[in-house]
Amino acid sequence: MEQALKFVQESQTCNIEGHSEASWNCEVHLPLLKRSLKLSAHASIVAAKLLYVSPDDWESGIDKCSSITAAIQPPTLCPNVEAGISTTRKIDLGMVLKIPSLTTDGVHQRIPFINQTYYTPVRSTPIAVSIETKLVGTDYEPAQTQMAVWVFAQFAHLRAIFGRAPAFLPLLLVQGDDWTFMAATQANATMNSNSESNGHVTTIWDKGFIGNTSSLEAVWKVSAVLQYLAMWSTTKHLPWLEACLHGVTSERSLS
Questions:
Q1: Strands 127-134 and 200-212: what pairing?
Q2: Other Cβ atoms closer than 10 A to 58
């Protein structure tokens, strides 16, 4: 109760004082994500990661969050990379999986980076749920495009290292104190489609409003959804990843 009330109060402060996106992330979004995962039955496997802070916020007193950038790498994972407009797409937070086998020498040599970024803190912790944050009132379409490019690169990277990609990947869009669920799927491009690169089209399915952090009841609702996604990450996405990793290690043992 006390912790949930704190999230409500911090949200109100951020709204009233007009805090930056980075401040929202550090004062509300990341702490709520961490607290929810700590309460989850899967806390030993799923963790929260801060992936991006804009350089504009580095001098805003956000010391604990400064100089963090998980950019899409290599740039060739992006759709239409030749246009030079996709490589800067990033997301702010991630729900990641801790898989011990990814840190062993054999697997690490074969898969030095499990995600679509060279950002070291997540080199061996697969991102299961990507979370993009924006300020209240920010245009929705640019945020959707940003997430589509990011998750397209994730599909492409997983397909490159495993030869296949998951059926879908969950996404969250947070605008101030509002939390929304989304999902991404990919399909093969048709001959006549104006598709993204690599022969696949990414579809973002939206828009399932979860709740906000303006009341105790709403905070608990958001936290419950985060814990449900932690369960999905552990019981659905993790087995898929482990099966793929088994295939990688089997290939290595036969080579």
A1: unpaired
A2: 15
Report pLDDT for 136. Answer: 87
Confidence category of residue 45, pLDDT binned at 50, 70, 90: very high
Burial of 230 (0-12, 13-18, 19+ CB in 10 A): buried
Question: Structure tokens of 241?
Answer: 């990843």
Query: Which two structure tokens, joined as six digits, stand for 195?
Result: 């598709």
Rounded Cα distance between 189 and 171, Å, is: 22
- What DSSP line would sit under 182-209, residue for residue? EEEEEEEPPTT----GGGEEEEEEEEEE
- Residue 189 has phi, psi (to 5 degrees) of -75, 145
- The residues that bridge with 91 in the sheet, in sequence order, are none
Structure tokens at 213: 């952090």
Which range of residues forms the domain containing residue 82? Answer: 2-254
Angle at 90 between CA 89 and CA 94, to 5 degrees: 155
Q: What is the Cα–Cα distance from 33 to 202, expressed in whole angstroms? A: 26
Cβ atoms 148, 130 nearer than 8 A: no
CA distance 138 to 225: 23
> Taking a C-beta distance cutoff of 8 angstroms, is the pair 11, 54 a contact?
no
The count of domains in the chain is: 1
CA distance 98 to 113: 14
Task: Say which residue the tokens 């906000």 belong to.
Answer: 212
Mean pLDDT value across residues 126-141: 90
Apex 214 CA angle, 210 and 220, nearest 5:
55
Quote the strand ranges of 33-119, DSSP E.
46-50, 93-97
The mean per-residue pLDDT over the stretch 37-58 comes to 82
* Residues in CB range of 124: below 8 A, 6 or more apart: 99, 102, 103, 108, 114
